[in-house]
Design brief:
The complex is a heterodimer of chains A (about 130) and B (about 525).
Chain A: E1 2-10, H1 11-14, H2 18-26, E2 31-38, E3 41-49, H3 52-64, E4 68-71, E5 74-78, E6 98-100, E7 106-108, E8 128-132
Chain B: H1 19-28, E1 33-35, H2 36-54, E2 57-59, E3 62-65, E4 70-74, E5 86-89, E6 92-94, E7 102-106, E8 110-111, E9 115-119, H3 120-128, E10 133-138, E11 149-154, E12 162-169, E13 176-178, E14 185-187, E15 190-192, E16 198-201, E17 220-221, E18 224-227, E19 230-237, E20 250-255, E21 264-269, E22 273-281, E23 283-285, H4 289-295, E24 303-308, E25 318-323, H5 324-328, E26 331-334, E27 337-343, H6 347-362, E28 373-374, H7 393-396, H8 410-419, E29 424-428, E30 434-439, H9 440-448, H10 471-481, E31 485-489, E32 495-500, H11 501-510
Parallel strand pairs in B: 1-2, 13-24, 16-27
Antiparallel strand pairs in B: 2-23, 3-22, 4-7, 4-12, 5-6, 5-10, 8-9, 10-11, 12-20, 14-15, 17-28, 18-19, 18-22, 19-20, 21-22, 24-25, 26-27, 29-30, 31-32
Classes of the chains: A alpha+beta (about 130), B alpha+beta (about 525).
The complex binds iron/sulfur cluster (SF4) (2 copies).
One iron/sulfur cluster (SF4) binds near residues 76, 92 and 119 of chain A.
């Protein structure tokens, strides 16, 4: 299962290659959905596709290295029954999670979603639903 | 000018077929029907003459927001009878200024209880789905219609006529929209991100019904069409029909009771309002090679204007021309950046509709009609005649503005606020350019927290206006950002004046409200 975790670094931690060392240790390659680094520290949103236990281990490792870890417990759904593939949502999605296939259907790849919610109110038939759990 | 249907008066063609002949072929089961997308290839490969000989009918399709849509309903008479003066369907008001129990429910009318979430478009969809609709009416009462109030529940089966009747459908093409402002705007062209952050467009390009017969050689009054999953008709040119600008439109009509809610959907356009998505397709009889050629139109050949919806004026600036193939690719270049594109009408559904229409014809369930009259080919779309001048910021703004410099002390600013009765102090640099603004609240807080200089407290992200902006656009800004005034600047960022709610109220007084 793919889980998403938000890492928060402090200034001093940001300079350390934490991500690299965790990857090396766990041998799990996470996807970086977005990263924002500044002199004050930074934020990285990772999507980790691995068995639950492995993800738990990775989270623990980050924590041990002094990184603040927050698991994102949200889900987004595209209701195929009401979606009519108008594409209104497409140009609002910053990550390409919503995309158009060759046959002009609109589809959602949740792994890429950063839950910015821009698409949700733009859907004319309310086919996009975000839930928190 | 109205062309003669069938192209009489136009130059002679090599291939000549009549609608009656084509209908005979449908009846015999040997009519050749292709979709407009398929026709592009056929004409490209074999040329229009061969294509005209081979193909009998080209089917088109579009599925998009068509705000100028609605339905005529007749409820039948109550006992005692009522002459409905005002009527609401699921809290959405319908127009009842006609005979006693006739009403027109328009797609963009909003629910009085649910606002943007439910409107006339949704009522129409719910009617088609056979759902129960709450009807509420009031009247002043007459000798023949004594009743003054009525409440009931109906479905489409309980009422007499339910006729979808749309004053403007199937725009031949439409402009593509983007936004130059530094804030997101919400328009009938969808949500437009700041700084040219995205592009939206509408229309199905090569599948567009009217773009397949832009000379109106076969499309006219009485043309039978696919409308919302049923067979409907064109009964006039649409409002704002502008054929010379390749922006033709049609008025359409059809029996709502026969329609399929897959092709008629009530929608909410974010922070704009409600509308109706209408599925529509026109079969084009290939009566000669001229028509074959126009049905062979490809997305590369259909151009439209990429327009800045950030400008609050009728004459919106055009950035450049784009083709439908660029738009359909999903990305468009603006100032060297690749920008994502949203088609607002569904390309998949448009394709499906052209396919359904093709199938209907092949299964002998749909025959073409010979129009009784053509549609105008030289009609122009006039702007509104206005008899009062629109006020601009320059007409209303206050020019004598007290300003301060960033290096000025908080104490001196506090004195200014104490002496004068206003809430905004624009801060300008040595060259008179606006660098920020301080409000009386900012100053109060600064005094309390022991700040010394204005530069420490000023807000540098300021909502501004320009002198040539219409006052209504600025009033909207104030409302949207919940502020009471804006500094007015020129292109160099120099402060020219200030426009406040007080200035605006002078105008409203003048308007006699
Ligand atoms: S919330 Fe919507 S717009 Fe934002 S990333 Fe997810 S799918 Fe894209
Ligand atoms: S905006 Fe809604 S209906 Fe349109 S493609 Fe996206 S999910 Fe589907």
């Amino acid at each position: 299962m793919t889980r998403k975790v938000l890492l928060r670094y402090s200034t001093q931690k940001a300079t350390e290659p934490i991500l690299a060392s965790v990857i090396k240790k766990t041998e799990i390659l996470p996807n970086i959905l977005y990263a924002e680094l500044s002199t004050k520290g930074g934020e990285i949103l990772l999507s980790i596709d691995a068995p639950d236990k492995e993800v738990d281990k990775t989270i623990a490792l980050f924590k041990r290295k002094g990184v603040e870890v927050q698991e994102i417990k949200r889900a987004i759904e595209l209701d195929r029954d009401s979606c009519f593939d108008c594409g209104a949502c497409l140009s609002l999605c910053p990550t390409g999670a919503l995309y158009m296939t060759d046959d002009k259907s609109v589809e959602l790849d949740e792994d890429k979603c950063i839950y910015c919610e821009l698409c949700v109110p733009s859907c004319p038939v309310r086919a996009l639903k975000l839930s928190r759990f | 000018m109205v062309p003669e249907i069938g192209g009489i008066g136009l130059t002679k063609t090599k291939v000549n077929k009549s609608v009656a002949e084509i209908n005979d072929r449908i009846r015999r089961g040997d009519a050749v029907v292709v979709t407009a997308e398929e026709m592009v290839e056929i004409v490209r490969e074999r040329g229009e003459v061969a294509a005209a000989k081979e193909v009998d009918i080209v089917t088109t399709g579009t599925f998009g927001a068509m705000c100028s849509s609605g339905a005529w309903l007749n409820f039948g008479h109550a006992d005692p009878p009522i002459k409905m003066q005002r009527v609401w369907l699921n809290d959405v008001e319908a127009y009842a200024g006609v005979a006693a129990v006739d009403a027109y429910i328009g797609a963009t009318q909003l629910s009085e209880t649910h606002g943007f979430e439910y409107g006339g478009g949704h009522v129409i969809e719910d009617l088609i789905r056979g759902k129960k609709i709450d009807v509420r009416a009031i009247a002043y009462g007459t000798d023949c219609y004594p009743r003054k109030e009525l409440e009931t529940t109906i479905t489409k089966d309980d009422i007499n006529q339910a006729v979808l009747c749309n004053p403007r459908n199937a725009y031949q093409r439409y402009v593509a929209a983007t936004n130059s402002r530094d804030e997101t705007i919400y328009t009938y062209m969808g949500t437009l991100l700041p700084n040219y952050g995205n592009v939206t467009y509408s229309g199905s390009g090569s599948l567009s019904p009217l773009h397949n017969d832009p000379n109106y050689e076969t499309i006219g009054i009485g043309t039978r069409i696919f409308l919302g999953g049923a067979q409907g008709y064109i009964f006039w040119e649409g409002t704002q029909h502008a054929p010379t600008k390749t922006m033709g439109t049609i008025m359409t009509i059809g029996n709502l009771k026969e329609m399929d809610a897959r092709y008629i959907r009530g929608v909410t356009i974010e922070n704009y309002g409600t509308s109706l998505y209408v599925g529509l397709g026109i079969p084009i009889p290939i009566i000669n090679e001229r028509v074959a050629k126009t049905t062979g139109v490809s997305d590369d050949e259909i151009k439209t204007d990429l327009t800045d919806y950030g400008a609050p004026r009728r004459g919106r600036p055009i950035l450049r021309e784009v083709t439908y193939s660029e738009l359909k690719s999903g990305k468009v270049e603006i100032n060297g950046n690749e920008v994502l594109v949203s088609p607002l009408s569904s390309l998949k559904w448009a394709r499906e509709i052209s396919g359904v229409l093709k199938k209907w014809i092949e299964e002998k369930r749909f025959f073409l009609s010979q129009p009784v009259e053509g549609l105008s080919t030289d009609q122009v779309f006039k702007p509104m005649k206005q008899i009062t001048a629109v006020p601009f910021v320059r007409n209303l703004m206050t020019r004598e503005v007290v300003t301060a410099k960033p290096s000025d002390s908080i104490a001196s600013a506090a004195k200014i606020f104490a002496k004068r009765n206003f809430d905004h102090l624009p801060i300008v640099d040595a060259k008179g350019r606006l660098v920020g603004i301080a409000t009386s609240w900012d100053i109060a807080v600064a005094v309390g927290t022991g700040k010394k200089k204005l530069s420490e407290v000023l807000t540098s992200k300021v909502i501004t206006a320009t002198e040539d902006e219409p006052v209504d656009a600025v009033a909207r800004k104030l409302e949207k950002h919940k502020i009471s005034g804006v500094p007015v600047i020129n292109a160099r960022g120099e402060l020219r004046g200030i426009l406040t709610n007080q200035d605006l109220s002078k105008l409203l007084g003048g308007r006699g409200r």
